[in-house]
Amino acid sequence: MIDRILNIDRRYIFAVIFVVVVWALMADRPIQVPISSPVQDVFDFMERVAQIDDHPPTILISFDYGPGSDAEVQPMALALLRHAFSKGVRVAGMCIWETAPGLAKAAFETVAPEFDKKYGDDYVFLGYKSGGIAVVLNMGQDFSLAFPADAYGNRTDTLATTARISRLADFDYVITLAAGNTIDQLWVAYGQDRYKINLGGGVTAVMAPDMFPFLQTGQLNGLIPGLAGAAEYEKLIEHPGEATAGMLAQSWTHIAIVLSIVFGNVAYFISRRRDREV
Amino acid sequence: MLFLRRTFPLIIAFVLGSFGAAQYYIPAPWSQATFRDLVYISRIVWTFALFLGMYSLFSLHIGRMRRKQAGWGYSGLVFAAFGITFAAMAWNSGGLLLSPLRPTELDQWFTVRWMYTYVFAPCDATMFSLLAFFIASAAYRTFRARTPEATILLVAAVVLMLGRVPALAMLYDIFVPEFLRTDWLTSLVTDDVRQLTEWLMNVPNLAAKRGLLLGVSLGAIATSLRIIFGIERSYLGGGGD
Known about the structure:
The structure holds two protein chains of two kinds. By secondary structure, chain A is α/β, with parallel strands linked by helices. Chain A has two domains: 2-27 and 251-277; 37-239, Rossmann fold (3-Layer(aba) Sandwich). Helices cover 55% and strands 12% of the residues of chain A. Chain A has a six-stranded parallel sheet, with helices on both faces. In chain A, helix 4 links the parallel strand 1 and strand 2. The radius of gyration of chain A is 22 Å and the shape is elongated. Chain B has three domains: 1-57, no CATH class; 70-142, no CATH class; 144-236, no CATH class. Helix content of chain B is 76%, strand content 0%. Chain B contains seven helices and no strands. Chains A and B meet through helix 2, helix 5, helix 6, helix 10 and helix 12 of A and helix 2, helix 4, helix 5, helix 6 and helix 7 of B.
């Protein structure tokens, strides 16, 4: 019996997780999300950017993720855009990942109409640019060399959002939303370290532990980690969205996994005691 | 021939590698301008590498189809998907040659964006979401307190899983009756576990990650120096001559 529990068919575990997730997604129960300091830091810095008065505050969001991370990272993009637009901050979007432009466009098209923002004057989408490190270096040296035109063929020096930008450091804040290694291997190493930009990040939960060395050194001045981080940001801007809705499912799934670990260990110790007695 | 195959690439690697490192410390305009041009050239080279990737992908799948390897039909799908996406891209962006043919009703749905939204995005998200099920299964099977080290890992994982999401506070709200809610218990559930989670991330995790990072970085510097000075030559290919 114990051996059967220890070697349980994994399809039973899949079924339990499926039921828990579906049930939690359908349940409509409010959940309290406490705010962690790295998320608060991103929010606070954005507030400070919004108070700049000697030039129109402008931020850059780099969408470095694909549809696989849509559920975790896209709510961060929506929350950041809502925060920026609500404070009158201009936003330029770009992609280092070739699978990101569809998600970036969707984020702008969802949020811009909510605040009656106009393309070109309030936001710009620069599109995907191949080259990885070279793109970041080029932006640091000469923005127009990296992005002479936006994703729709408009010259960036004719658009109000990017007309003032001559190099990467001219952006008041750069936020990279990443599902891969673009933060540590591109933006920190070649953007923040070399051109001294103010850099914040949003990453999938599995990547978050890798970012803590950069948070401690200040190379990243804030971090939104995973769906929980996105839910925290939604709470800060007082606009609960998909991340907040997903927290119930994620919390119950974590509880189910922890219970399964406890259950597995109890069975393991019973089997070990039985083996010793034999 | 040996000069072109071995010596000349080594000279290029030495000159450009040395300059790439040195320019960081030379703020003179000529140095920065040269570096800017080199970076720009590298972006062009990067783009041509895409053709190399296409060639590699196609030759792999053509080989599988020729040999009628198991699952060779899926290789056909690679070509079909590439052809359809390429055609849609050319159609949607083809302002010059294709413009007399457009706009037509085909434009309504034969778009890269339609394929991205309704084919690629759901497939990619589905593949990634399966991870949750496999993680749950792996956690059940592997997180066993067999040794002291495994027990530490297990406890840290459980604390992080419960501390990173408001799971404990939610259970507390649902299952703990009002008369049992002392200040100590409330603080434990809402603050202490969360602080322990942050400590785990900020101290042991950070120490281990920083050690790894420094080790990898020193290794990268050593490898770069070996390439610049021609000691490491495996990138030249060929094996030996």
